[in-house]
Amino acid sequence: MKATKKHRIIQHLVMPNSAFGAPQEMYVRTSNVRVFFHNKKLLFDKGSTATFDTFFNGLTIATWKKNCTFNDLQLRLKGEGRFILRFGVHRIGHAQKWLDESVIELKDGLEKIIDISFWQSLEEGMLYFYLESLGESELTEGCFVTYTPPRNQVKLGIVITHFNRKQYVLPAIKRIRDDLLNDPNYKDKINLVVVDNSKSILPEEAEGTTLIPNKNFGGSGGFTRGLLHLKDQGSFTHCLFMDDDASCEVESIRRSYHLLEFSSEQGFAVSGCLMRDVKPSILHEKGVEFRKGYCSPFKSELNLTDIDDLLYADRADVKINFGAWWFFAFKISDVKNFAFPFFIRGDDVQFSLQNNFKIKTINGIGCWAEDFWYKESPLTKYFVVRASLVLMIAYEDLSVLDVLKNIFSFFMSSALSYNYSSAKGVRLALDHFMIGPKFWLDNMDMSAPRIQISEFSTSEKLLPINLSDLLLDYPTLKKRPDRANNQKYIEIEHPLDGYPGKEEQFFRKAIRILTLNGFLLPSFLLKKKMVFQHKTYRAFYKDIFLYEKVLYEYVPTGLGYIAIHDKKEFFRELFSLMNQMYTFTLRFKALRSEYKQAIPDMTNEGFWRKIYFDQELL
């Protein structure tokens, strides 16, 4: 919808579509309305209704009012036919309330503007509108607009870092080019930069974008290369980092742009929420806190089709201290420190902490991405632990005891799950960290460590699983499996909450803890059986207790692997870790000093310019 000179768009109406598998209720709730995904329009009969109190189309009052400046608000609609139009508001702890009602007529090709005169009186909750058709009619477009001029002139550069994921990035390029870059409203205001770390994208595949073939220094290097490009152009004011496997409605980018236009807070940044691509309406996280070496996601497992969950999701009751780079928008001039060369994992945490962004999230801005549980491996465990050590020792000033607890927790979560390769990854991360800052400089492309890890990771490689060939036990469930539909087990909504089985008895739990979940018990007590576990970050220890084997399966793909209770391997790795932790304790103060001294030189703009523009290094 083309904006007039006086009107400024705040947020567009997002119509249901088939691009991401998201349920219609994330866009609109309808009764007797025909929804056309391809044409992105709604067709009404007399008495048909559509309510837009949804994730993508509700307007979060508090976020706009507290962080942005505009004094008026209107709704602009385009379609055909006569409707009853109502405005309503949902608030936590309050009954739903209607605020206004009128009869409107939409005529083909003409935009209808409805003033929201009560905007100034609103303080919190979700503002939305409702349509009831008075005859055959249709709705094709809509948006909230304002006459207030934006506070900031914004030119946004979108940076996508890519490595061998063309199946994700090429559709994203096409979607952004067709729906955003070619939109007259955003011409010369938004550009797309694709940093291709795998050098596999052809120029014709990235037509309409800036394609930068790049040496592979991971996400840390790729996003930094894109940011340097935007700075060198001189005209860009803001940047949006997006992962190559993150898929989003283009409206998420538009809405971020308008938030940045109207923002009034110094250091203002926008973090998109994340949904799992296998469960598109379930929130994975909406903001994150990094503390004591761990990332704690906020608002996990909320249902984004449920009104109460939507209100809770947008409640500003937590302090977000970093924005993940699957979707993170910020002002370029607010960047005082660049990324540490982590390669992957930890770079987004450090970038946010060092630059002290004031990070906000809002319903309607987010993306879908590949499941983190699916990606979990000895290699990712290595990256996570290594990054956590840098962040804990250099940014959080934790004591040696706190850091040791963190290392031990990472290790035991793998070892107790029979994932000894991941446990090795934890130990290798500690070894490499103790080499000091020089290790990072000598391994910017991580090729040698990746080869080293691949040599001991085969036991956790995901392979096709034929369940009919296996005799499996399943954790005790409250409900029996649905035998009529040949369900052998019930997939739970949130594996990290554990299986919905019976509460564990105190005596059994005490024995598990005292015997390291059975590793201190003699082998003849083990059940010569195999138990099923969803592949997540670790096993549920009570479920695998005394089992000789565990099948880890990532159900959406049917891939998995079998892990074996091996006392010899467990204690070999544990004793090796103890020796490392002793060495780490002796060197703790020296390592802290080394890293704190080196980090300023490894996170400044000049460091990365030397890396990328010194021809000897390319």
UniProtKB/TrEMBL annotation:
Residues 158-261 form the Glycosyltransferase 2-like domain. Pfam families: Glycos_transf_2. This is Glycosyltransferase 2-like domain-containing protein. It comes from Methyloprofundus sedimenti. The lineage of its organism: Bacteria, Pseudomonadati, Pseudomonadota, Gammaproteobacteria, Methylococcales.
